[in-house]
Amino acid sequence: MTITLSGIAKTFGDFTAVHPLDLTVPEGSFFALLGASGCGKTTTLRMIAGLEEPTSGSILLGEDDITRLPPHKRPVNTVFQNYALFPHLDVTENIAFGLRRRGVKSVSKQVAEMLDLVQLGDMARRKPRQLSGGQQQRVALARALINRPQVLLLDEPLGALDLKLRRQMQLELKRIQTEVGITFVHVTHDQEEAMTMADSVAVMYGGRVEQLGPPAELYENPRSTFVANFLGTSNLIEAEVLSPGTAGPEQLRVQVVGADATLRLPAARCAVDGVGAGTKVLVGVRPEKISLAHTDDADSVPRGVPEDHNRLTGRITDASYLGVSWQYVVESPAGTQLTVYEQNVSRDSRLTPGAHVVLHWQPAHTFALDAAQD
Ligand code: ATP
C-alpha cells in the first residue's frame, strides 16, 4: 500500500521533533528513513504506526485516512531493535502468537510458511535464548509478517547485531521484502545499510527531509553538504562560478579558489538556485571517480590524462592499503585534502607519499553545492 504523509509534524512541548513533512512511500517499495541520532526518523515511523499522534497533518494508507486510527486497527506491523520475543515460548509459538490471539484455529500451515521464509525450519522448537541475535531477529520478522500487514515498519532492527551478521541480515531482509512484496519502511542511522537495502531513501536532518531519492542518485548527486558528507567522502573544494554559458548551456565552469585551475560540471548537478558569475560553490567528486597520474613536473599534463577531464595537481600525503582498494590522501594547492580510492593498483605502480600527481576525473562526476549553506 502507498503511504502518503501530508504536512505531518510533531512537537513535544516547545520542541519540534518533526517539521511539516510531505512524503510518499510507493506501494511495495523498500523505503529507508536515514539520519543521525535525534533527526526525527523514529518519531516519523511511530506516527505511521499510530504510536505517536501527529501535531498536524494527515497519513493516508492507499486512499484511507488513518491519522486518528489506533495502532491495532492499522494494517501495519512494527519490528523493533530489541525483538521483544516471548522468552517462555518457542519459535513456533512466538510466530503463531498474533494469529492465536485473533482466534485463528489452524495456524500450522502459515507458521510453516513463515519458518520457510525466514529459513528457520530446523529451529522451530527452540526458545529465544537458544538462538543467535540474527535468528531472534528472523523470528521477530516472521512474527510480524504472519499477520499479513500491508506495511512493515522496522525500527533499527539490525542495530543489536555485530557488523558481519548485520551485513548478512541486510541481504536477507531485502530478499524477504522482494518475496512478500509489501511496503517496508526501515529506520536506520547506517548509510551503508540504507543504500544496500532501500529502493528509495529519505535523508533526515533536524526534523526535516534533506533529500529523497534512490541511493545512487543521493550518492552521485547530493543537493546539500549534509547529504554529501553523510553518504561518504565528498572531497569538497571551494570554487567560484565563471560566467555561465562559457562552457555551453548544459555545463558550468568554476574557478578553484587558491589554485590555478578551472573545473567543469553539468549544470543540472549544481544544487544552487540562480547561479551566476561569482557565485561561491563547493565542488565535490567521490573518491572512486578520481584517477591519479604520476608527474615529475607539476606544470605539465602527464600522458594518458584525457583532454576533457577535470584536472587538479597535488601531492600524496598518505597511502593506505584497504584490501579492496588503495586509499590516497592528496594535498592540493587549493589547500584541500582530497581522498582517492584506486583499485587494481599493482605493487609497482603504487604511489608513495611525497609523489606529485595530477588528479583527474570526468566532468559528469562533478557536483556543486551551495557554499553559503550552514
Ligand atoms: P535515534 O536514532 O537516536 O532514535 P531519531 O532520529 O530516531 O534518533 P527521534 O527518536 O525521532 O530521533 O527523536 C527526535 C527528537 O525528538 C529528539 O531530539 C528526541 O529527544 C525528541 N523526542 C522524541 N520523543 C520525545 C518525547 N516523548 N518527548 C520529548 N522529546 C522527544
UniProtKB/TrEMBL annotation:
Pfam families: ABC_tran (PF00005), TOBE_2 (PF08402). Keywords: ATP-binding, Cell membrane, Membrane, Nucleotide-binding, Translocase, Transport. SUPFAM superfamilies: MOP-like, P-loop containing nucleoside triphosphate hydrolases. Residues 3-231 form the ABC transporter domain. InterPro entries: AAA+_ATPase, ABC_SmlMolc_Importer, ABC_transporter-like_ATP-bd, ABC_transporter-like_CS, Mo/tungstate-bd_C_term_dom, NA-bd_OB-fold, P-loop_NTPase, PotA-like. The keyword Protease does not apply. Its EC number is 7.6.2.11. CDD domains: ABC_PotA_N. The keyword Membrane applies. One of its GO terms (molecular function) is ATP binding. It catalyses: ATP + H2O + polyamine-[polyamine-binding protein]Side 1 = ADP + phosphate + polyamineSide 2 + [polyamine-binding protein]Side 1. SMART domains: AAA. Part of the ABC transporter complex PotABCD involved in spermidine/putrescine import. Responsible for energy coupling to the transport system. The complex is composed of two ATP-binding proteins (PotA), two transmembrane proteins (PotB and PotC) and a solute-binding protein (PotD). Belongs to the ABC transporter superfamily. Spermidine/putrescine importer (TC 3.A.1.11.1) family. This is Spermidine/putrescine import ATP-binding protein PotA. It comes from Streptomyces oryzae. The gene is potA.
